[in-house]
Design brief:
By secondary structure, the protein is of the alpha+beta class. It contains 20 helices and 36 strands. Helices cover 34% and strands 29% of the residues. Strands 7, 8, 9, 10, 12, 13, 14, 16 and 17 form a 9-stranded antiparallel β-sheet that branches. It has a 6-stranded mixed β-sheet with strand order 2-3-1-4-5-6, with helices on both faces. It has a 6-stranded antiparallel beta barrel with strand order 18-23-21-20-24-25, surrounded by 4 helices.
Length: 651
């Protein structure tokens, strides 16, 4: 890292980016504006043409902003996209003797697809043409700007040779900076920076440069390099070649890092706060077909493109969702499968280019960066449209919840999708719950669980099939017990009480005695067995702690073994009866035994079976069976001195 220069200026979160056709004077104008030659590579010097992008500082009085100079040649579009993705103000450079050229048009298409910056035009090489030609060039550029969606952009004549007009360009940039709207979301989110450049500095080691997309990272902070997943630590930071306490979103920086070598890092990788962002090979996106002119063509259901996102580029297969084709000039939704893993997140913008011939054909926004399968196309569009609306409002969590793979999430995953860390993530989740975007099913040290209420139908559809199989296997039961239903959904039983009411709202599911069932299902039990069940239940309830044995019940009522198995299922199915060592005890009697035991624990730290037997009024075998049941549920533990209480002193 170079020594600090001019440590006093106020550093703004603002990036100006150049665009325009090759040899229209972008690099020369940048040098006049900033005092820096952005062509740093020997090959660039030899060819007199920018090949790679370069970030340089620009003084606006007491303020400091960044300028990124991008290559204009079509062979270096990847470098151009990597630089232009972070700009707030676009400086379009057009030569007066040429006017808008092919790369001018493609650059503006890319800019329009990636973001909507403020735009100004520098009409260069005015010293080579007459005043009349300058006026004609301005008219042509104004028409071009109106066509590409920037009709109000100022057009400023300038000569890189004489310097005439350069001050006007600088002053206009300053006015546009004043009009910038702060990116609040970028400041609140966790740190993320796409790598633009990496090198080794003598005496310092590995240095990584780029423009952070979000968050801050200071000295001694631990970050991770993705996709490799390598941990690294920040040693020092410079922002626009000035020592800084931290790197922050919207300002070009260089970070001196330890624990990673330069050859382990390449452009396209990402440095981020640990555990928040992940590499992916799948994206769900809102897509725009930007083909026009001779290239105008619909997107078919499956086609291959080159995806440019951040500073990364890779081949991708595009599968349209909800449509067989997407005509030019229209938008839709798609599932992208990437040839190589890269880091992306909801809200990221991207460009699609055809591999042959190389041209920009579309772009869009990431709605979800999580792998998933779209087995059915029908029904997804409304949900994805809602995700697109959410991401337009910078609600990246809602976008992921709507466009992601599941309607039930573990707490840590929900927190990660906020793109925030720590208290910021917890606050974002609390806000999502208050807005009804999420429902908190359970709370635990591990983060609990959440459901997406707008996607309850998906959860219900999964259970309809599971319950249908369950009823076929158990035609006599009331339904599926809560733990089994939750296991089928991949959540803990703690969340059942909050999830079940949401599931039964549509009327296709029912909650019976704490169990889920199809609303149309009725246990297939003969009427004679229902009468027997009522008689047995009445006897078991009257018996209290003197629970009748299974064999005695069969003899007393003349019940066959096959019928007894069915009766046992329906007696115990709703939890009203427990089987303890072959005896049937009513739930109310079991709870009464619990209270008697707790009363005995008030008299001492241990309880033996004999005083417990006397307290509940039964025989030794039944008393021991009840105590064993309390051991099994974790209320007590057997020791040589007797039972001890595990769940705290009795109240």
């Amino acid at each position: 890292m170079r020594g600090a220069e001019n440590p006093q200026p106020q550093v703004l979160r603002a990036i100006v980016g150049t665009a325009g056709h090759v040899d229209h004077g972008k690099t020369s104008l940048v040098k006049l504006l900033t005092g820096y030659d952005s062509d740093r590579l020997p090959e660039e010097k030899a060819r007199g043409m920018s090949i790679d992008l370069a970030f340089v500082p620009c003084r606006l009085g007491s303020r400091l902003i960044g300028v990124v100079d991008v290559p204009g040649h079509q062979d270096f579009i990847r470098n151009m996209v990597a630089g232009i993705a972070s700009v707030d103000i676009l400086l379009l450079v057009v030569a007066a003797d040429d006017g808008p050229m092919p790369q001018t048009r493609e650059h503006m298409k890319i800019v329009g697809l990636l973001r909507r910056p403020q735009v100004l035009v520098a009409l260069t090489k005015t010293d080579l043409v007459s005043p009349e030609q300058v006026d004609l060039a301005r008219e042509e550029i104004a028409a071009f700007l109106a066509h590409v969606g920037f009709p109000d952009a100022p057009v400023l004549p300038v000569s890189n040779k004489t310097g005439e007009g350069v001050d006007a360009v600088r002053d206009t940039i300053g006015k546009l900076v004043d009009r910038l709207v702060p990116r609040t979301g970028a400041a609140e989110h966790a740190f993320r920076m796409n790598v633009v450049r990496v090198f080794s500095a003598k005496g310092h080691g590995t240095v990584v440069a780029g423009v952070p997309l979000s968050g801050t990272a200071g000295n001694d902070e631990k970050l991770e390099l993705l996709p490799p997943g390598l941990g690294l630590t920040v040693r020092a930071v410079q922002v626009y070649r000035t020592d800084s306490q931290e790197a922050f979103a919207g300002a070009s920086c260089a970070m001196n890092v330890r624990n990673v070598e330069p050859d382990q890092i390449t452009r396209g990788m990402t440095i981020a706060s640990p555990g928040i962002f992940r590499a992916t090979t799948e994206l769900v996106v809102a897509l725009e077909n930007a083909s026009e002119g001779r290239e105008e063509a619909p997107f078919r259901n499956r086609f291959d493109v080159r995806l440019h996102i951040g500073t990364s580029a890779t081949m991708a297969s595009v599968k349209l969702l909800g449509a067989r084709s997407l005509p030019a000039g229209t938008g839709g939704f798609a599932h992208l499968e990437l040839a190589e893993p890269l880091v992306a997140a909801a809200g990221d913008r991207f460009i699609l280019r055809s591999p042959t011939p190389g041209m920009t054909v579309g772009g869009g926004t990431v709605l979800s960066a999580r792998p998933q399968r779209f087995r059915r196309i029908a029904g997804h569009e409304a949900r994805l449209a809602a995700a697109r609306d959410a991401v337009r409002g910078e609600d990246v969590l809602a976008s992921e919840l709507l466009a992601g793979p599941e309607a039930l999430l573990a707490g840590p995953e929900a927190a990660r999708l906020t793109q925030r860390a720590g208290q910021g993530a917890r606050q974002a989740l609390a806000e999502a719950v208050s807005r009804g975007v999420l429902v908190e099913l359970s709370v635990s040290e591990g983060g609990g669980e959440f459901a997406v209420p707008s996607r309850i139908d998906e959860i219900r559809d999964r259970l309809l099939k599971v319950l249908a199989r369950h009823h076929r296997a158990d035609p006599y039961g009331e339904g599926m017990p809560a733990p089994k239903a939750c296991a089928a959904l991949g959540i803990s039983a703690r969340g059942f009480d909050r999830l079940a009411p949401l599931l039964v709202q549509a009327g296709t599911l029912a909650l019976r005695h704490g169990k889920l069932a199809l609303a149309s299902f009725r246990p297939d039990i003969p009427s004679r067995l229902l009468l027997l069940r009522a008689k047995l239940l009445a006897l078991i309830e009257r018996s209290g702690a003197k629970a009748p044995a299974r064999g005695n019940l069969m003899r007393e009522f003349g019940i066959l073994e096959t019928d007894m198995k069915i009766l046992e299922k329906i007696l115990c199915g709703d939890g009203s009866v427990l089987v303890l060592d072959g005896h049937f005890m009513h739930r109310s009697a079991y709870e009464a035994c619990r209270q008697k035991l707790l009363e005995l624990f008030k008299q001492g730290p241990t309880v033996e079976w004999k005083p417990f037997k006397d307290a509940i009024g039964t025989n030794r075998d039944m008393a021991v069976a009840v105590l064993d049941a309390f051991d099994a549920e974790g209320l007590t533990r057997r020791t040589p001195a007797g039972r001890v209480l595990l769940k705290g002193p009795p109240q």
